[in-house]
Amino acid sequence: MKVHMTNIHGMTKNSVAQIAQNMTSQFGKQLGFNEIGIYNYPISVDSPTELSKRFDGMVASVSNNDIVIYQAPSWNTIEFDHAFVDHLKRYSKLKLIIFIHDVPPLMFAGNRYLLPTFIDFYQKADLLIVPSEQMYHFLRENGLAEKKYVVQHMWDHPLDANMLYDTTEIKRLNFAGDPTKFTFVQDWQHDTPLHLFASKKPTATDLNLIYEGWLNDAELCIKLSKNGGFGLVWNDGGYTQEYTSKYISYKLGTYLAAGLPVIIPRGISNEELISKNNLGFAVDSITEALEKLERLTQEEYLQYKNAVKEFAPLLQQGYFTKQALVQAVFEVLQA
């Protein structure tokens, strides 16, 4: 028996979807898993026969009785995902684990109509790796049959802790994200400046932003640790808020791995984990966050900071991902 894992390639260098899959694949290789590469391309260029031949080449190392961990979505459309998994199912006694990274019908309101198609795809798995308990129960409420599942809980962020600074600056807010996707950034006129890490700067000139630009992974973590303060995980409410109550934010792991406590919106899927480990605090609004930040003492900040320092090695060394992968293989092979 061999274990294989899909991994996407060919997206932009700052694609979080690709970064997350590539990272997961690296941890899989450390566990002895084989990679099945999936290149990002317009699948309409392939006829059904050509697509089948493509799949044959991609799964040449797969045999009967193997395990395949499918990182989903592939971002080559849900039709591609269905077709690829159906191709894999031709192997006798193959076990399929679907590792759910994102659920596009929950990410974008315009894609909600696709939810049944995605749930039909998840039905094909022998076991699911889900971001949170909330996500599993949502899928069950929307038609998913009862299945074995493993909860991921948190995105890891591998890095060398020795390269980080240990700054004790309190009243500093850091946010990594595309400002065009987060309207609160475009309205940031608060007294406390927001350190923005993004490839594009908002065009408005009356915002209290300190633009840090786009940095590669190592540079970002070093700069975050040097800035100190808090990492901000936020959404704009509405449809986005519904999704954050079920998925897990990649940037949350980035902030914590870089040594920063976090400020999160109340109701996100791993709020309890953050609270239990004293890794930051949850609020209902940006205004509340800034008020709490203003009242925060040096002693209180150091308590958060030290708690993060204790917790961060789990993320820096990939233990959440490795645990989920090993547990998934362990569970799928049992009755």
TrEMBL record:
Sequence ranges assigned to domain Glucosyltransferase 3-like N-terminal in this UniProt record: 2-154
Molecular function as annotated in GO: nucleotide binding; UDP-glucosyltransferase activity
Gene3D superfamilies named among the record's database cross-references: Glycogen Phosphorylase B (3.40.50.2000)
Domain Glucosyltransferase 3-like C-terminal: 173-328
List of residues binding UDP: K181, S249, Y250, K251, L252, G253, T254
EC category name: transferase
Pfam assignment, any one: Gtf3_C
Domain of life: Bacteria
EC number(s) given by UniProt: 2.4.1.-
InterPro entries in the record: Gtf3, Gtf3_C, Gtf3_N
Pathway of action: Protein modification; protein glycosylation
Keywords: Glycosyltransferase, Nucleotide-binding, Transferase
Assembly: Homotetramer; a dimer of dimers.
Function: Required for polymorphic O-glycosylation of the serine-rich repeat protein in this bacteria. Catalyzes the second step in glycosylation by transferring a sugar from a UDP-activated sugar to the terminal GlcNAc moiety of the 3-O-(N-acetyl-alpha-D-glucosaminyl)-L-seryl-[protein] resulting from the first glycosylation step.
Comment on protein domains: Dimerizes via the C-terminus; dimerization is required for tetramer formation. Binds protein substrate via an exposed loop in the N-terminus.
Family statement: Belongs to the Gtf3 glucosyltransferase family.
Protein name as annotated: Glucosyltransferase 3
Phylogenetic classification of the source organism: Bacteria, Bacillati, Bacillota, Bacilli, Lactobacillales
Gene name for this UniProt entry: gtf3
